[in-house]
Specification:
The protein is α/β, with parallel strands linked by helices and 393 residues long. The protein contains 14 helices and 15 strands. The strands form 2 sheets. The chain has a 9-stranded mixed beta sheet. The longest helix has 20 residues. The chain is globular and about 75 Å long. The model has no long low-confidence stretch (mean pLDDT 94).
């Protein structure tokens, strides 16, 4: 059987979780691992019984891999991916795709130039409630947008930010909640609502002893005149994960894992212009559809990636081109907030690069770090559930 040989570059908690998942995919083979730490490399290489490297360039020159899964700190994503493409290796990259839209665009261009695949680990696209939401959008159920709304919150402690020298710094992470926690939800938001044309945002560091933002919010303007709002933070419990898309023909709400899609008959503009009774309301019906029980989660993204590499599937779940959208929105929010002005999209990458260079040049090493490599327990539980679901008769 033909298999795709993977190298995992970046073997912290998340990289090791991916290594386990690669071994579960029948058409994939874990062929090598890589970390800048010799001790970590030796430990994980022994754990999986594969060669270990401390330099990703040596791994790519070894001829051992057909593809790499990149799980390094964010600022290295573009550098590693572009080197992989030069060696003819496909790339599946952890979120965010890169720390700047210019790097992301270069990654996409390099993949195309070398005839390689670039995929993003945006596994939330596979979850049933978001696939339902996406189908409603694709079928035009809600019609032209009137307003859109996203609230996504988490809670992160000082211990979390002390766990690695790169966390919570402009030099090591390239941003805060917008770069680390929010990319999945920003991706889903753009996937469902599309891209705005103008962003007016604020960011701030409200509670944490970090350089980057722990809270961000923005007003959005869309090409058709619709308006939107995005709010994210790492400062509250219980968490909120709510999407609202309201259109001329209906309303889509994703609240946690609950999806509600309603349709109005007739559409609102038609109703307003034709109704004779001043207090009448258009009929509202609940939209329903059927979905297959597809495999979900990180493993589903890896399986899909392997199938496309082998020519057994046509499209990636999250191609690099689409991953650019959430990155661009995050960059636009930072640029708008720091420069205190509305920002037009498509984003001027040179303007953002100049700002990011300023922020990173002012970044300072942490005074206290207590190194901990541990996968997010929520992600670890999700991966265990993926494995359990497949093992059920």
């Amino acid at each position: 059987m033909q298999r795709v040989r993977f190298g995992v570059i970046g073997i912290g908690g998340m990289g090791v979780a991916h290594a386990h998942l690669i071994q579960r995919v029948q058409e994939a083979e874990l062929a090598a691992v890589c970390s800048a730490s010799l001790e970590r490399t030796q430990q994980v290489a022994r754990q999986f019984g594969v060669p270990g490297f401390t330099d990703y360039r040596e791994l790519l020159q070894s001829g051992l891999v057909d593809a790499v899964l990149v799980a390094t700190p964010h600022p290295l994503h573009a550098e590693v991916a572009e080197c992989a493409f030069q060696h003819g290796a496909h790339v599946l990259c952890e979120k965010p795709l890169a720390i700047s839209i210019s790097e992301g665009r270069r990654m996409v261009a390099a993949a195309q130039q070398h005839g390689c695949l670039l995929g993003a680990m945006l596994q939330m696209r596979t979850e049933r409630h978001f696939r339902l939401a996406r189908r409603a959008v694709e079928e035009g159920v809600i019609g032209d947008l009137l307003r859109v709304h996203l609230i996504a919150t988490w809670c992160r402690s000082e211990a979390y930010y002390r766990s690695a020298s790169w966390r919570g710094t402009w030099s090591g992470e390239g941003g805060g909640v917008l770069m680390n926690q929010a990319p999945h939800h920003l991706d889903l938001f753009c996937w469902l609502a599309g891209m705005p044309k103008r962003v007016t945002a604020q960011i701030r560091t409200r509670y944490h002893q970090i350089e980057v933002e722990d809270e961000a919010f923005a007003q959005l303007e869309y090409p058709n005149g619709a308006h939107g709002y995005v709010y994210v933070n790492v400062n509250e419990v219980p968490f909120t994960r709510r999407f609202e898309l309201v259109g001329e023909c209906g309303k889509l709400i994703v609240d946690g894992e609950q999806v509600t899609v309603t349709c109005t008959a007739p559409p609102i503009p038609e109703y307003m212009n034709t109704v004779q009774d001043m207090w009448a309301m258009p009929a509202v019906v609940t939209w329903q559809t059927e979905l297959d029980d597809s495999v979900t989660g990180h493993e589903a993204v890896i399986r899909n990636f392997v199938q496309v590499v082998l020519g057994r599937a046509q499209s990636l779940i999250a191609p690099g081109e689409e991953a650019l959208q959430s990155l661009e929105l995050a960059n636009a929010m930072v640029l708008s907030a720091v420069r205190q002005k509305p920002v037009e999209l498509p984003l001027n990458e040179h303007e953002y690069d100049a700002l990011l260079a300023e922020l990173r040049s002012a970044s300072r090493p942490k005074s206290a770090v207590q190194e901990v490599r541990r996968t997010d327990p929520n992600i670890a539980r999700a991966i265990q559930m993926e494995q359990s679901a497949e093992n059920e008769p």
